[in-house]
Sequence to fold (64 residues):
Amino acid sequence: MKTVENEKYIGDWLSVVQRSVGALDFGVVQIIVHDSKVVQIERTEKVRFDGRQNKVKSEMEVEK
Fold:
């Protein structure tokens, strides 16, 4: 059964996941679940070096 509270809960963590994925060029987003509830979201970003241009695209450049 869907409730307004449940929809808000899903919307809250889903928007965090969407922002986390959208801000990554390379990396992992993990969703941690406890008792059927999302309790934590972890984002690990990998920084890749482009040898041709010697550029580093960091998290600071990606976030707006």
Remarks:
- Strands lie at 27-34, 37-45, 49-50, 55-56.
- The CA atoms of residues 28 and 44 lie 5 Å apart.
- The helical segments are 4-22, 59-62.
